[in-house]
Amino acid sequence: MNPLWHKVHWSSFIIHNHILLQSPNIISSNCSCFISTLSVTNPIQGHIRNGKINHARQLFDQNPTSRDTVTWNSIITYYIKHNQMQYAHNLFDQMPKRDIVSWNIMLSGFNKTNNPHKLHQLFLQMNRAGEIPNHFTFSIIISGFINTFNVLVPQLHGLILHLGLHSNVFVGSALMRGYTRLKDCEALHRVFDDVVVKDVSTWNALVVGYMELGFTVEAQMTFNKMPDVNIISWTSLVNGYIKNGKINQARSIFDNMPQKNVVTWTAMIKGYAQNDNYIDAINLFVSMLESATRPNHFTYSTLLDACAGCSMFLLGNQLHSCILKTGLLCEVVVSTSLIDMYMKCGDIEVALCVFESMEKKNTVSWNSVIGGCARHGLAKRALCEFEKMIESGAKPDNVTYINLLSACVHGGLVEEGERHFKLMGMRYGIKAEMKHYSCMVDLYGKSGEIEKAEKLVKEMPFEPDVGVWGALLTACGLHSCYEVANGVENLARDHPTIYSMLVKLHGEKGEWSRAIEMRNKMMETGARKQKAGSRTEFVHGVT
DNA sequence: GTGGTTTATC
Where would I find the PPR repeats (predicted)? Predict the structure, then answer.
Protein backbone atom coordinates (compact mmCIF):
# COMPACT_ATOMS: atom_id res chain seq x y z
CA MET A 1 0.00 0.00 0.00
CA ASN A 2 1.39 3.35 -0.99
CA PRO A 3 1.82 5.50 2.15
CA LEU A 4 0.24 8.39 0.29
CA TRP A 5 -3.11 6.76 -0.21
CA HIS A 6 -4.49 7.67 3.17
CA LYS A 7 -3.72 11.31 2.46
CA VAL A 8 -5.94 11.41 -0.59
CA HIS A 9 -9.66 11.91 -0.42
CA TRP A 10 -11.45 8.86 -1.72
CA SER A 11 -14.09 11.13 -3.18
CA SER A 12 -11.44 12.36 -5.58
CA PHE A 13 -11.70 9.17 -7.55
CA ILE A 14 -15.19 10.00 -8.66
CA ILE A 15 -14.07 12.94 -10.72
CA HIS A 16 -13.08 12.19 -14.32
CA ASN A 17 -12.38 8.57 -13.55
CA HIS A 18 -15.03 7.25 -15.86
CA ILE A 19 -13.27 9.06 -18.66
CA LEU A 20 -9.83 7.83 -17.66
CA LEU A 21 -11.09 4.27 -17.51
CA GLN A 22 -12.64 4.49 -20.93
CA SER A 23 -9.29 5.04 -22.64
CA PRO A 24 -8.27 1.63 -23.90
CA ASN A 25 -4.70 0.48 -23.82
CA ILE A 26 -4.14 -0.33 -27.44
CA ILE A 27 -0.38 -0.56 -27.40
CA SER A 28 -0.05 -4.25 -27.97
CA SER A 29 1.57 -4.60 -31.37
CA ASN A 30 4.07 -7.38 -31.36
CA CYS A 31 7.01 -6.20 -33.41
CA SER A 32 9.55 -8.68 -32.08
CA CYS A 33 7.77 -11.67 -33.67
CA PHE A 34 8.03 -10.04 -37.04
CA ILE A 35 11.69 -9.23 -36.62
CA SER A 36 12.65 -12.71 -35.44
CA THR A 37 11.40 -14.25 -38.68
CA LEU A 38 13.81 -12.20 -40.75
CA SER A 39 16.83 -14.08 -42.06
CA VAL A 40 20.06 -12.66 -40.70
CA THR A 41 23.45 -13.62 -42.04
CA ASN A 42 25.37 -12.91 -38.85
CA PRO A 43 24.06 -14.96 -35.87
CA ILE A 44 25.36 -12.41 -33.35
CA GLN A 45 23.28 -9.66 -34.92
CA GLY A 46 20.32 -12.03 -34.97
CA HIS A 47 20.61 -12.50 -31.22
CA ILE A 48 20.86 -8.75 -30.67
CA ARG A 49 17.74 -8.14 -32.74
CA ASN A 50 15.90 -10.66 -30.62
CA GLY A 51 17.12 -8.96 -27.46
CA LYS A 52 19.35 -11.89 -26.47
CA ILE A 53 22.45 -9.91 -25.57
CA ASN A 54 24.03 -12.67 -23.48
CA HIS A 55 23.91 -15.14 -26.38
CA ALA A 56 25.36 -12.45 -28.62
CA ARG A 57 28.17 -11.66 -26.19
CA GLN A 58 29.04 -15.35 -25.80
CA LEU A 59 29.45 -15.84 -29.54
CA PHE A 60 31.25 -12.53 -29.86
CA ASP A 61 33.74 -13.31 -27.08
CA GLN A 62 34.39 -16.85 -28.30
CA ASN A 63 34.88 -16.22 -32.03
CA PRO A 64 37.46 -13.60 -32.94
CA THR A 65 36.63 -14.13 -36.61
CA SER A 66 33.06 -12.97 -36.09
CA ARG A 67 34.13 -9.59 -34.83
CA ASP A 68 33.70 -7.32 -37.83
CA THR A 69 33.07 -3.61 -37.37
CA VAL A 70 29.32 -3.93 -38.00
CA THR A 71 29.03 -6.48 -35.20
CA TRP A 72 30.99 -4.31 -32.79
CA ASN A 73 28.70 -1.42 -33.71
CA SER A 74 25.56 -3.52 -33.19
CA ILE A 75 26.60 -4.54 -29.70
CA ILE A 76 27.52 -0.98 -28.75
CA THR A 77 24.16 0.22 -30.09
CA TYR A 78 22.39 -2.38 -27.95
CA TYR A 79 24.12 -1.16 -24.79
CA ILE A 80 23.33 2.48 -25.57
CA LYS A 81 19.69 1.66 -26.20
CA HIS A 82 19.58 -0.06 -22.81
CA ASN A 83 21.16 2.84 -20.93
CA GLN A 84 24.47 1.11 -20.34
CA MET A 85 26.80 3.84 -21.58
CA GLN A 86 29.76 2.58 -19.58
CA TYR A 87 29.66 -0.86 -21.27
CA ALA A 88 29.27 0.83 -24.62
CA HIS A 89 32.21 3.12 -23.98
CA ASN A 90 34.44 0.25 -22.81
CA LEU A 91 33.72 -1.73 -25.97
CA PHE A 92 34.26 1.34 -28.12
CA ASP A 93 37.69 1.83 -26.54
CA GLN A 94 38.60 -1.79 -27.27
CA MET A 95 37.66 -1.66 -30.94
CA PRO A 96 40.60 -2.50 -33.19
CA LYS A 97 39.13 -0.58 -36.13
CA ARG A 98 36.41 2.03 -36.00
CA ASP A 99 34.44 3.38 -38.92
CA ILE A 100 32.39 6.58 -39.14
CA VAL A 101 29.29 4.70 -37.94
CA SER A 102 31.09 3.63 -34.75
CA TRP A 103 31.93 7.25 -33.95
CA ASN A 104 28.41 8.40 -34.73
CA ILE A 105 26.88 5.72 -32.51
CA MET A 106 29.03 6.78 -29.57
CA LEU A 107 28.35 10.48 -30.21
CA SER A 108 24.65 9.73 -30.34
CA GLY A 109 24.95 7.87 -27.02
CA PHE A 110 26.42 10.93 -25.31
CA ASN A 111 23.74 13.05 -26.92
CA LYS A 112 20.93 10.81 -25.67
CA THR A 113 22.34 10.66 -22.15
CA ASN A 114 22.57 14.43 -22.12
CA ASN A 115 26.31 14.67 -21.73
CA PRO A 116 27.46 17.58 -23.92
CA HIS A 117 30.98 17.70 -22.46
CA LYS A 118 31.70 14.06 -23.29
CA LEU A 119 30.09 14.62 -26.67
CA HIS A 120 32.41 17.52 -27.33
CA GLN A 121 35.49 15.58 -26.20
CA LEU A 122 34.63 12.63 -28.41
CA PHE A 123 34.09 14.88 -31.39
CA LEU A 124 37.56 16.38 -30.89
CA GLN A 125 39.02 12.89 -30.46
CA MET A 126 37.34 11.86 -33.69
CA ASN A 127 38.95 14.77 -35.52
CA ARG A 128 42.36 13.91 -34.07
CA ALA A 129 41.91 10.33 -35.30
CA GLY A 130 41.47 11.72 -38.80
CA GLU A 131 37.88 10.57 -39.25
CA ILE A 132 35.86 12.85 -41.55
CA PRO A 133 32.43 13.69 -40.09
CA ASN A 134 29.37 12.99 -42.25
CA HIS A 135 25.76 14.27 -42.23
CA PHE A 136 24.88 11.93 -39.32
CA THR A 137 27.75 13.34 -37.27
CA PHE A 138 26.65 16.92 -37.75
CA SER A 139 23.01 16.39 -36.96
CA ILE A 140 24.03 14.60 -33.75
CA ILE A 141 26.59 17.09 -32.51
CA ILE A 142 24.64 20.24 -33.40
CA SER A 143 21.60 19.04 -31.50
CA GLY A 144 23.83 17.95 -28.61
CA PHE A 145 25.63 21.28 -28.48
CA ILE A 146 22.44 23.37 -28.48
CA ASN A 147 22.43 24.20 -24.77
CA THR A 148 26.12 24.21 -23.99
CA PHE A 149 28.34 24.75 -27.01
CA ASN A 150 25.96 26.63 -29.27
CA VAL A 151 28.68 29.21 -30.03
CA LEU A 152 30.29 26.55 -32.21
CA VAL A 153 27.32 26.44 -34.61
CA PRO A 154 28.72 28.96 -37.15
CA GLN A 155 32.09 27.17 -37.17
CA LEU A 156 30.40 23.81 -37.69
CA HIS A 157 28.32 25.41 -40.42
CA GLY A 158 31.57 26.45 -42.14
CA LEU A 159 32.80 22.87 -41.99
CA ILE A 160 29.45 21.63 -43.32
CA LEU A 161 29.65 23.98 -46.31
CA HIS A 162 33.24 22.90 -46.91
CA LEU A 163 32.23 19.25 -46.96
CA GLY A 164 29.16 19.97 -49.10
CA LEU A 165 26.67 18.63 -46.54
CA HIS A 166 24.49 21.76 -46.32
CA SER A 167 21.67 20.44 -48.47
CA ASN A 168 20.93 17.50 -46.16
CA VAL A 169 17.54 17.81 -44.41
CA PHE A 170 18.74 16.57 -41.04
CA VAL A 171 21.80 18.80 -41.00
CA GLY A 172 19.62 21.69 -42.14
CA SER A 173 17.06 21.43 -39.36
CA ALA A 174 19.76 20.96 -36.72
CA LEU A 175 21.50 24.12 -37.97
CA MET A 176 18.21 26.01 -38.01
CA ARG A 177 17.64 25.13 -34.39
CA GLY A 178 21.16 26.26 -33.57
CA TYR A 179 20.76 29.60 -35.32
CA THR A 180 17.37 30.13 -33.69
CA ARG A 181 19.09 29.85 -30.33
CA LEU A 182 21.74 32.30 -31.50
CA LYS A 183 18.91 34.66 -32.50
CA ASP A 184 20.34 34.88 -36.02
CA CYS A 185 17.28 35.17 -38.21
CA GLU A 186 19.22 35.79 -41.41
CA ALA A 187 21.30 32.65 -40.97
CA LEU A 188 18.15 30.72 -40.11
CA HIS A 189 16.60 31.62 -43.41
CA ARG A 190 19.82 31.06 -45.36
CA VAL A 191 20.11 27.51 -44.02
CA PHE A 192 16.45 26.89 -44.89
CA ASP A 193 17.10 28.02 -48.48
CA ASP A 194 20.17 25.76 -48.72
CA VAL A 195 18.15 22.62 -48.02
CA VAL A 196 17.25 21.59 -51.55
CA VAL A 197 14.57 18.97 -50.88
CA LYS A 198 12.68 20.28 -47.85
CA ASP A 199 10.38 18.09 -45.80
CA VAL A 200 7.77 19.00 -43.19
CA SER A 201 10.37 19.11 -40.39
CA THR A 202 12.43 21.68 -42.29
CA TRP A 203 9.37 23.90 -42.63
CA ASN A 204 8.44 23.34 -38.98
CA ALA A 205 11.92 24.43 -37.92
CA LEU A 206 11.38 27.70 -39.81
CA VAL A 207 7.98 28.28 -38.15
CA VAL A 208 9.47 27.57 -34.72
CA GLY A 209 12.47 29.77 -35.49
CA TYR A 210 10.36 32.76 -36.50
CA MET A 211 8.12 32.31 -33.45
CA GLU A 212 11.08 32.08 -31.07
CA LEU A 213 12.52 35.28 -32.50
CA GLY A 214 9.18 37.07 -32.14
CA PHE A 215 8.22 37.20 -35.82
CA THR A 216 4.68 35.87 -35.51
CA VAL A 217 3.53 37.28 -38.86
CA GLU A 218 6.41 35.64 -40.73
CA ALA A 219 5.75 32.39 -38.88
CA GLN A 220 2.09 32.44 -39.89
CA MET A 221 2.99 33.28 -43.49
CA THR A 222 5.46 30.39 -43.55
CA PHE A 223 2.79 28.07 -42.16
CA ASN A 224 0.33 29.22 -44.84
CA LYS A 225 2.88 28.50 -47.57
CA MET A 226 3.72 24.99 -46.34
CA PRO A 227 3.11 22.23 -48.89
CA ASP A 228 2.29 19.76 -46.10
CA VAL A 229 1.46 20.34 -42.47
CA ASN A 230 1.34 17.84 -39.67
CA ILE A 231 0.17 17.98 -36.07
CA ILE A 232 3.58 19.26 -35.02
CA SER A 233 3.30 22.22 -37.40
CA TRP A 234 -0.05 23.16 -35.86
CA THR A 235 1.24 22.69 -32.32
CA SER A 236 4.32 24.78 -33.05
CA LEU A 237 2.05 27.56 -34.26
CA VAL A 238 -0.13 27.41 -31.14
CA ASN A 239 2.91 27.28 -28.92
CA GLY A 240 4.57 30.14 -30.77
CA TYR A 241 1.58 32.43 -30.27
CA ILE A 242 1.55 31.54 -26.57
CA LYS A 243 5.25 32.32 -26.23
CA ASN A 244 4.63 35.69 -27.83
CA GLY A 245 1.82 36.45 -25.41
CA LYS A 246 -0.93 36.15 -28.04
CA ILE A 247 -3.07 33.71 -26.15
CA ASN A 248 -6.31 34.45 -28.02
CA GLN A 249 -4.68 33.87 -31.38
CA ALA A 250 -3.25 30.63 -30.01
CA ARG A 251 -6.73 29.57 -28.92
CA SER A 252 -8.25 30.37 -32.27
CA ILE A 253 -5.63 28.21 -34.04
CA PHE A 254 -6.15 25.54 -31.40
CA ASP A 255 -9.91 25.49 -32.00
CA ASN A 256 -9.46 25.22 -35.77
CA MET A 257 -6.93 22.37 -35.69
CA PRO A 258 -8.04 19.29 -37.61
CA GLN A 259 -6.72 17.08 -34.80
CA LYS A 260 -5.04 17.52 -31.45
CA ASN A 261 -2.78 15.35 -29.36
CA VAL A 262 -1.66 15.41 -25.74
CA VAL A 263 1.16 17.82 -26.57
CA THR A 264 -1.23 20.33 -28.15
CA TRP A 265 -3.64 20.18 -25.21
CA THR A 266 -0.85 20.52 -22.68
CA ALA A 267 0.70 23.47 -24.51
CA MET A 268 -2.62 25.32 -24.55
CA ILE A 269 -3.35 24.53 -20.88
CA LYS A 270 0.11 25.75 -19.96
CA GLY A 271 -0.48 28.91 -21.97
CA TYR A 272 -3.48 29.75 -19.79
CA ALA A 273 -1.76 28.77 -16.55
CA GLN A 274 1.26 30.94 -17.33
CA ASN A 275 -1.00 33.91 -17.89
CA ASP A 276 -2.65 33.34 -14.49
CA ASN A 277 -5.84 32.28 -16.23
CA TYR A 278 -6.41 29.24 -14.07
CA ILE A 279 -10.12 28.87 -14.77
CA ASP A 280 -9.59 28.50 -18.52
CA ALA A 281 -6.68 26.15 -17.87
CA ILE A 282 -8.90 23.84 -15.82
CA ASN A 283 -11.86 24.08 -18.18
CA LEU A 284 -9.57 23.11 -21.01
CA PHE A 285 -8.32 20.15 -19.00
CA VAL A 286 -11.89 18.94 -18.57
CA SER A 287 -12.49 19.31 -22.34
CA MET A 288 -9.31 17.36 -22.89
CA LEU A 289 -10.59 14.47 -20.79
CA GLU A 290 -13.92 14.62 -22.62
CA SER A 291 -12.10 14.36 -25.94
CA ALA A 292 -10.63 11.07 -24.64
CA THR A 293 -7.08 12.40 -24.85
CA ARG A 294 -5.08 10.83 -22.08
CA PRO A 295 -3.06 13.29 -20.00
CA ASN A 296 0.62 12.47 -19.60
CA HIS A 297 3.21 13.49 -17.01
CA PHE A 298 3.68 16.94 -18.58
CA THR A 299 -0.06 17.59 -18.48
CA TYR A 300 -0.26 16.73 -14.79
CA SER A 301 2.85 18.73 -14.03
CA THR A 302 1.38 21.76 -15.81
CA LEU A 303 -1.94 21.46 -13.95
CA LEU A 304 -0.27 21.06 -10.58
CA ASP A 305 1.75 24.14 -11.40
CA ALA A 306 -1.55 25.97 -11.94
CA CYS A 307 -2.84 24.66 -8.60
CA ALA A 308 0.33 25.84 -6.88
CA GLY A 309 -0.03 29.23 -8.53
CA CYS A 310 -3.43 29.96 -7.00
CA SER A 311 -3.50 27.56 -4.04
CA MET A 312 -6.16 25.21 -5.41
CA PHE A 313 -5.62 22.59 -2.78
CA LEU A 314 -8.69 20.47 -3.51
CA LEU A 315 -8.05 20.18 -7.23
CA GLY A 316 -4.40 19.47 -6.48
CA ASN A 317 -5.53 16.67 -4.22
CA GLN A 318 -7.82 15.24 -6.89
CA LEU A 319 -5.02 15.38 -9.43
CA HIS A 320 -2.84 13.51 -6.95
CA SER A 321 -5.33 10.66 -6.91
CA CYS A 322 -5.51 10.59 -10.72
CA ILE A 323 -1.71 10.47 -10.82
CA LEU A 324 -1.60 7.54 -8.40
CA LYS A 325 -4.16 5.75 -10.51
CA THR A 326 -2.32 6.29 -13.79
CA GLY A 327 1.02 5.29 -12.31
CA LEU A 328 2.66 8.57 -13.26
CA LEU A 329 3.97 9.31 -9.79
CA CYS A 330 7.29 7.73 -10.77
CA GLU A 331 7.88 10.60 -13.20
CA VAL A 332 10.21 13.13 -11.61
CA VAL A 333 8.45 16.13 -13.18
CA VAL A 334 5.13 14.98 -11.71
CA SER A 335 6.29 14.31 -8.16
CA THR A 336 8.33 17.51 -8.13
CA SER A 337 5.31 19.56 -9.19
CA LEU A 338 3.27 17.71 -6.60
CA ILE A 339 5.73 18.68 -3.85
CA ASP A 340 5.64 22.28 -4.98
CA MET A 341 1.84 22.28 -5.08
CA TYR A 342 1.50 20.86 -1.55
CA MET A 343 4.14 23.23 -0.23
CA LYS A 344 2.46 26.27 -1.79
CA CYS A 345 -0.95 25.13 -0.54
CA GLY A 346 0.46 24.81 2.95
CA ASP A 347 0.46 21.04 3.43
CA ILE A 348 4.11 20.59 4.31
CA GLU A 349 3.58 17.15 5.76
CA VAL A 350 2.24 15.62 2.56
CA ALA A 351 4.81 17.50 0.48
CA LEU A 352 7.59 15.91 2.53
CA CYS A 353 5.83 12.55 2.36
CA VAL A 354 5.77 12.69 -1.46
CA PHE A 355 9.41 13.72 -1.45
CA GLU A 356 10.51 10.87 0.82
CA SER A 357 8.68 8.34 -1.32
CA MET A 358 10.48 9.41 -4.51
CA GLU A 359 12.84 6.80 -5.86
CA LYS A 360 14.58 9.14 -8.25
CA LYS A 361 15.28 12.72 -7.21
CA ASN A 362 16.94 15.39 -9.26
CA THR A 363 18.23 18.89 -8.54
CA VAL A 364 14.78 20.39 -9.15
CA SER A 365 13.08 18.03 -6.69
CA TRP A 366 15.60 18.93 -3.98
CA ASN A 367 15.13 22.59 -4.84
CA SER A 368 11.38 22.44 -4.37
CA VAL A 369 11.64 20.76 -0.99
CA ILE A 370 14.38 23.14 0.23
CA GLY A 371 12.43 26.14 -1.09
CA GLY A 372 9.20 24.89 0.47
CA CYS A 373 10.81 24.48 3.87
CA ALA A 374 12.39 27.92 3.56
CA ARG A 375 9.06 29.60 2.73
CA HIS A 376 7.43 27.95 5.74
CA GLY A 377 10.16 29.10 8.09
CA LEU A 378 11.65 25.63 8.57
CA ALA A 379 15.19 26.95 8.21
CA LYS A 380 16.94 24.09 10.00
CA ARG A 381 15.03 21.51 7.98
CA ALA A 382 15.94 23.31 4.74
CA LEU A 383 19.63 23.28 5.67
CA CYS A 384 19.37 19.65 6.68
CA GLU A 385 17.78 18.72 3.34
CA PHE A 386 20.58 20.58 1.58
CA GLU A 387 23.17 18.46 3.40
CA LYS A 388 21.26 15.33 2.36
CA MET A 389 21.16 16.60 -1.19
CA ILE A 390 24.95 16.94 -1.30
CA GLU A 391 25.37 13.50 0.29
CA SER A 392 23.09 11.97 -2.35
CA GLY A 393 25.39 13.29 -5.06
CA ALA A 394 22.90 15.73 -6.61
CA LYS A 395 24.49 18.93 -7.87
CA PRO A 396 23.15 22.19 -6.46
CA ASP A 397 22.39 25.01 -8.89
CA ASN A 398 21.58 28.71 -8.65
CA VAL A 399 18.00 28.01 -7.52
CA THR A 400 19.22 25.68 -4.75
CA TYR A 401 21.27 28.53 -3.36
CA ILE A 402 18.48 31.10 -3.64
CA ASN A 403 16.30 28.75 -1.57
CA LEU A 404 19.07 27.92 0.86
CA LEU A 405 19.97 31.56 1.46
CA SER A 406 16.34 32.52 1.91
CA ALA A 407 16.07 29.73 4.51
CA CYS A 408 18.96 31.41 6.32
CA VAL A 409 17.09 34.74 6.14
CA HIS A 410 13.99 33.19 7.71
CA GLY A 411 16.04 31.53 10.42
CA GLY A 412 18.31 34.53 11.06
CA LEU A 413 21.30 32.27 10.41
CA VAL A 414 23.90 34.86 9.39
CA GLU A 415 27.03 32.75 9.70
CA GLU A 416 25.49 29.79 7.89
CA GLY A 417 24.33 32.07 5.11
CA GLU A 418 27.74 33.70 4.79
CA ARG A 419 29.42 30.31 4.61
CA HIS A 420 27.09 29.01 1.90
CA PHE A 421 27.33 32.24 -0.08
CA LYS A 422 31.11 31.82 -0.23
CA LEU A 423 31.03 28.07 -0.92
CA MET A 424 28.56 28.32 -3.76
CA GLY A 425 31.13 29.91 -6.08
CA MET A 426 34.23 28.25 -4.67
CA ARG A 427 33.00 24.68 -4.50
CA TYR A 428 30.28 24.53 -7.12
CA GLY A 429 31.24 27.30 -9.53
CA ILE A 430 27.82 28.96 -9.28
CA LYS A 431 27.95 32.67 -10.02
CA ALA A 432 26.07 34.84 -7.55
CA GLU A 433 23.09 36.49 -9.25
CA MET A 434 20.88 39.41 -8.22
CA LYS A 435 18.62 37.19 -6.13
CA HIS A 436 21.53 35.75 -4.14
CA TYR A 437 22.69 39.26 -3.36
CA SER A 438 19.25 40.38 -2.29
CA CYS A 439 19.03 37.37 0.05
CA MET A 440 22.37 38.30 1.59
CA VAL A 441 21.41 41.96 1.97
CA ASP A 442 18.17 40.84 3.56
CA LEU A 443 20.05 38.45 5.86
CA TYR A 444 22.50 41.12 7.08
CA GLY A 445 19.79 43.76 7.19
CA LYS A 446 17.29 41.80 9.25
CA SER A 447 19.93 40.85 11.81
CA GLY A 448 20.95 44.48 12.22
CA GLU A 449 24.27 44.33 10.38
CA ILE A 450 23.43 47.31 8.19
CA GLU A 451 27.08 48.19 7.43
CA LYS A 452 27.73 44.73 6.05
CA ALA A 453 24.53 44.95 3.99
CA GLU A 454 25.51 48.35 2.63
CA LYS A 455 29.04 47.17 1.86
CA LEU A 456 27.71 44.20 -0.09
CA VAL A 457 25.42 46.45 -2.14
CA LYS A 458 28.39 48.69 -2.99
CA GLU A 459 30.60 45.75 -3.90
CA MET A 460 28.06 44.00 -6.12
CA PRO A 461 29.36 43.37 -9.64
CA PHE A 462 26.15 44.76 -11.18
CA GLU A 463 23.57 47.49 -10.64
CA PRO A 464 21.32 46.56 -7.71
CA ASP A 465 17.64 46.09 -8.57
CA VAL A 466 14.47 46.93 -6.66
CA GLY A 467 14.73 43.73 -4.64
CA VAL A 468 18.19 44.58 -3.33
CA TRP A 469 17.34 48.23 -2.58
CA GLY A 470 14.07 47.09 -1.03
CA ALA A 471 15.89 44.67 1.28
CA LEU A 472 18.28 47.42 2.34
CA LEU A 473 15.48 49.94 2.93
CA THR A 474 13.46 47.41 4.92
CA ALA A 475 16.49 46.95 7.15
CA CYS A 476 16.80 50.73 7.52
CA GLY A 477 13.17 50.87 8.63
CA LEU A 478 13.59 47.97 11.07
CA HIS A 479 16.67 49.44 12.70
CA SER A 480 15.96 53.15 12.24
CA CYS A 481 19.02 53.80 10.09
CA TYR A 482 17.89 56.96 8.35
CA GLU A 483 21.34 57.96 7.11
CA VAL A 484 21.72 54.85 5.02
CA ALA A 485 18.18 55.35 3.73
CA ASN A 486 19.04 58.86 2.58
CA GLY A 487 22.00 57.42 0.68
CA VAL A 488 19.70 54.91 -1.05
CA GLU A 489 17.39 57.72 -2.11
CA ASN A 490 20.12 59.18 -4.30
CA LEU A 491 21.19 55.88 -5.78
CA ALA A 492 18.03 53.83 -6.34
CA ARG A 493 16.43 54.05 -9.76
CA ASP A 494 12.94 55.50 -9.93
CA HIS A 495 10.60 52.81 -8.72
CA PRO A 496 7.25 53.10 -6.92
CA THR A 497 8.19 50.42 -4.35
CA ILE A 498 11.34 52.27 -3.36
CA TYR A 499 9.51 55.56 -2.98
CA SER A 500 6.71 53.93 -1.05
CA MET A 501 9.28 52.63 1.43
CA LEU A 502 10.88 56.04 1.67
CA VAL A 503 7.49 57.66 2.38
CA LYS A 504 7.11 55.31 5.32
CA LEU A 505 10.66 55.95 6.59
CA HIS A 506 10.41 59.72 6.43
CA GLY A 507 6.98 59.55 8.01
CA GLU A 508 8.33 57.54 10.94
CA LYS A 509 11.05 60.08 11.42
CA GLY A 510 8.47 62.88 11.35
CA GLU A 511 9.91 64.56 8.26
CA TRP A 512 6.57 65.27 6.66
CA SER A 513 7.72 67.51 3.83
CA ARG A 514 10.22 64.86 2.68
CA ALA A 515 7.53 62.20 3.03
CA ILE A 516 5.16 64.17 0.79
CA GLU A 517 7.97 64.73 -1.70
CA MET A 518 8.57 60.98 -1.87
CA ARG A 519 4.85 60.35 -2.18
CA ASN A 520 4.65 62.66 -5.19
CA LYS A 521 7.64 60.92 -6.77
CA MET A 522 5.98 57.61 -6.09
CA MET A 523 2.87 58.68 -7.96
CA GLU A 524 5.01 60.01 -10.83
CA THR A 525 6.67 56.63 -11.24
CA GLY A 526 3.30 55.06 -11.86
CA ALA A 527 2.28 53.57 -8.52
CA ARG A 528 -1.31 52.38 -8.34
CA LYS A 529 -3.36 51.37 -5.39
CA GLN A 530 -3.70 47.63 -5.56
CA LYS A 531 -7.13 46.15 -5.80
CA ALA A 532 -7.97 44.30 -2.64
CA GLY A 533 -9.10 40.73 -3.08
CA SER A 534 -8.92 37.56 -1.10
CA ARG A 535 -9.64 35.28 -4.05
CA THR A 536 -11.66 33.17 -1.66
CA GLU A 537 -12.87 30.96 -4.44
CA PHE A 538 -9.34 29.56 -4.74
CA VAL A 539 -7.92 29.69 -1.27
CA HIS A 540 -7.98 26.44 0.67
CA GLY A 541 -5.69 25.73 3.53
CA VAL A 542 -3.13 28.43 2.86
CA THR A 543 -1.02 29.33 5.84
C1' DG B 1 24.94 -0.73 -37.04
C1' DT B 2 24.14 6.09 -36.88
C1' DG B 3 20.31 11.68 -37.51
C1' DG B 4 16.26 16.34 -37.27
C1' DT B 5 10.37 19.17 -35.64
C1' DT B 6 5.65 20.21 -30.66
C1' DT B 7 4.37 20.06 -24.27
C1' DA B 8 8.88 19.79 -19.48
C1' DT B 9 8.92 20.29 -12.75
C1' DC B 10 12.11 24.55 -8.56
Answer: 68-102, 230-264, 362-396
